[in-house]
Amino acid sequence: MRAILAKRFMRLPHPTLSRKREREKNKRERRKTHYHLRMDNPQTAFLFDLDGTLVDSVYQHVLAWQEALESEGIPLSVWRIHRKIGMSGGLMTNILLRESGHEIDAARGERLRRMHAESYNRRSKAIRPLPGARALVAHLTEARIPWAIATSGRMETARPVLETLGVDFDRVPIVTRDEVRYAKPDPDLFIAAAKKLGVGIETSTVVGDSVWDMLAARRARALGIGLLSGGYASEELERAGAYRVFEDPADMLRHIDEIGGRR
Amino acid sequence: MRAILAKRFMRLPHPTLSRKREREKNKRERRKTHYHLRMDNPQTAFLFDLDGTLVDSVYQHVLAWQEALESEGIPLSVWRIHRKIGMSGGLMTNILLRESGHEIDAARGERLRRMHAESYNRRSKAIRPLPGARALVAHLTEARIPWAIATSGRMETARPVLETLGVDFDRVPIVTRDEVRYAKPDPDLFIAAAKKLGVGIETSTVVGDSVWDMLAARRARALGIGLLSGGYASEELERAGAYRVFEDPADMLRHIDEIGGRR
User: Fold this and answer.
1) Chain B closest CA to A2's CA: distance in Å?
2) Which of A38, A80, B158, B213 has minimal CB crowding within 10 Å?
3) Catalytic residue list contains B186
4) Per-residue model confidence as pLDDT tens digits over B22-31
5) Contact indicator for A160, A124 with CB cutoff of 8 Å
6) What whole-number distance in Å separates Cα of residue A44 and Cα of residue A33?
7) Are B158 and B151 in contact (CB under 8 A)?
């Protein structure tokens, strides 16, 4: 066994193989080794949701969706919209329409999307980064811990808040709903973010405020950390699979050593 | 024992007492009997919170408080305000100021109250009764089950939403923050509402959307029913003492026979 491991890591030439076959064998070994090394040395990478996780924008999104739905003659209670926030906008409107017995059609979906973006942008000047958000990502950058942002929102609504957060668009991988086929609770956004970082999703930790982030994390086989700053309760996040819950980015930074955030 | 009970309920003249002493004794007995009868025949009365319970106004209150606090140079995350909504406005601002290390003074408190009312009234035209709210109170009225409204808000902000609800101000007892010394989570509002109805608080059921309603109910020795329509989670309400949780007034009406709402 020790001999096999030694061979795998040292890539010694095999005495009985030809040069070409040897190269191919080494390639196969490297592939296997890569996988094993990743699990043997699981340095954590953090994949952040945006709204409610790094910026305080959930309540504005909720009221903007309510306004959009009402303009289509669909009156819905605000709390029901709040409980669906964080998932794909298209999926959310489909679910809300189905639950309230309204018809789903593509043109209406498109009108809702535009109306929401317009109403949200009108409200977005009041939006601030959450306490500790900038300090948390600055800590990770300084400690050379990989991090990225993955949001169910579109770049159209995400850009202004990313700017208030001071994110360097050239250096931080950002995945928006425009780039993947399915948004949360599907795992695609987080998988794409891990790929952009060049890290394994199975050694990544998703940080989000909604149950949809936690479900997407589980489907991607990542870990999930829940933040209360989107207005969900601790029990909701834990039930959806969060392995740890903090109040907001400031509280997460205070506990960073508990969750793989050391240098 | 049976003889004592028979005497108490039938009020037979006592053979050895004079007429006057007999009358006094009967009066004392009646007082005692009144208490016992109330516990023996506990017809439920319902004491409703207003915001988030009968009308869909919590998120507007939350953002109005955020705007008021920000105008005083106190930036607070929206979810933290949401978690305090439903308690006395004065108590809430004191708690939020203390938690965020700001100074509490009466003049600032008064400015915050005025600023909140102004900002809230600007947002209040979008506010609607919650699904089933009108049908629920109409059912109770028809079934001759006593009900009243007790809100931590002031009449200044409560009146417009009471009007959208179609409440008959001459017939429905309404207790606002203006009428009691301490609002929720103190029990005074619900005790005053029960008194206005002429029912015992210990046979009343408080219906509210926030943990502060549930805590006030327990302090008043009433029962508490939690509604999710204010945006709190089921577990938060149950942990604060709710003996039953429903989605909204429509859902409560569907289950009215489970909670003493029969004719």
Assistant:
1) 53
2) A38
3) no
4) 777 666 655 5
5) yes
6) 19
7) yes
Q: How many CB pairs under 8 A join A and B?
A: 66
Active site residue A49: yes
A63 touches chain B (CB under 8 A): yes
Contact A128 B75 (CB under 8 A): yes
CB–CB of B52/B212 below 8 Å?
no
Q: Would an 8 Å CB–CB cutoff place A248 in contact with chain B?
A: yes
Q: What is the pTM of this model?
A: 0.84
Nearest CA in chain B to A131: B77
Residue of A nearest to B248 (CA): A77
- pLDDT value for A188: 97
Q: What is the CA radius of gyration of chain A?
A: 22
Q: What is the CA radius of gyration of chain B?
A: 22
User: What 3-state class would DSSP assign to A34?
Assistant: helix
Backbone angles phi, psi at A165, to 5 degrees: -80, -15
Q: Which of B147, B192, B151 is nearest to B171 (CA)?
A: B147
pLDDT digits (tens, 9 = 90+) for A130-176: 999 999 999 999 999 999 999 999 998 899 899 999 999 999 999 99
User: Which residue segments constitute the domains of chain B, with CATH numbers given?
Assistant: 45-57+128-259 (3.40.50.1000), 58-126 (1.10.150.240)
The single residue of A40, A49, A56, A168 carrying the catalytic annotation is A49
pLDDT, one tens digit per residue, over B212-241 is 999 999 999 999 999 999 999 999 999 999
